[in-house]
Amino acid sequence: xxxxxxxxxxxxxxxxxxxxxxxxxxxxxxxxxxxxxxxxxxxxxxxxxxxxxxxxxxxxxxxxxxxxxxxxxxxxxxxxxxxxxxxxxxxxxxxxxxxxxxxxxxxxxxxxxxxxxxxxxxxxxxxxxxxxxxxxxxxxxxxxxxxxxxxxxxxxxxxxxxxxxxxxxxxxxxxxxxxxxxxxxxxxxxxxxxxxxxxxxxxxxxxxxxxxxxxxxxxxxxxxxxxxxxxxxxxxxxxxxxxxxxxxxxxxxxxxxxxxxxxxxxxxxxxxxxxxxxxxxxxxxxxxxxxxxxxxxxxxxxxxxxxxxxxxxxxxxxxxxxxxxxxxxxxxxxxxxxxxxx
Length: 342
What we know:
Elements: H1 2-15, E1 21-27, E2 30-35, E3 39-48, H2 52-65, H3 71-109, H4 116-154, H5 176-197, H6 204-217, H7 222-234, H8 238-251, H9 256-268, H10 272-285, H11 290-302, H12 306-319, H13 321-324, H14 327-340
Helix pairs in contact: 1-3, 1-5, 2-3, 2-4, 3-4, 6-7, 7-8, 7-9, 8-9, 9-10, 10-11, 11-12, 12-14
């Protein structure tokens, strides 16, 4: 299950554009999804894959039930069944994990992770897998097994099974089929070990694309707009970040985080009056927000309101001693006190 979880994680990153699931972790038969939508360290949803073993066992059993007598043919069928089973189980895992993620997001967050077309594809694929895995495959397995036993019982007792090879020294050479199976098994083990041992680092651009998709699919989901704004701000795209924060405030006018971040971007653009207004609105709702007091004080200094700035700088230092440890803030407070004491 751990190898299957590693493969499913990488397959989902290839299937999802942009990727929303950041990791898939296995514990016994339980596969747990993590996503930046709920926080990188918070489990988003889980799926119990205890029945997934049925597909592997049934596929291999089906290959062994085929009425052939040559060992080479049986090995080929077994290898083919193994490959088909691995692909089928991986596909089942990806579809089920995407489905439980969508269900969790809808029930607990009130958003959707997929477009209408993607949800339709997931539904049809899931129905097809259930039909094949739960109905057609067992029925086909039973039919082939029954026919194999019937053919064996109908064979005359003295029937020859093949030509007699004349006696003589035989040269032992490794079967090409056996060598191919061994080689394929080794390559498969290497690939699965690689999948289990490596995990790609998070891609900030993928996160931006993912949050942008969520914002488009869920216009009233304020956290998506806030995170889009954060990513755009980090890239220096301040005008786009301002628009993202304002869209978040349209969805949630009481959102202090969006308001505070908006003030920060406005400060970086030199729009000090608008930034000061944003910080004041944050403090109307969170009067003990030390960073907002500090940034408002700095904005007021730029607006040539030194004594008002001192009030907020001192308040920020009282709320958070670490701010007073900032040499810049401490120097501003020390220089403003004599000026404003009159």
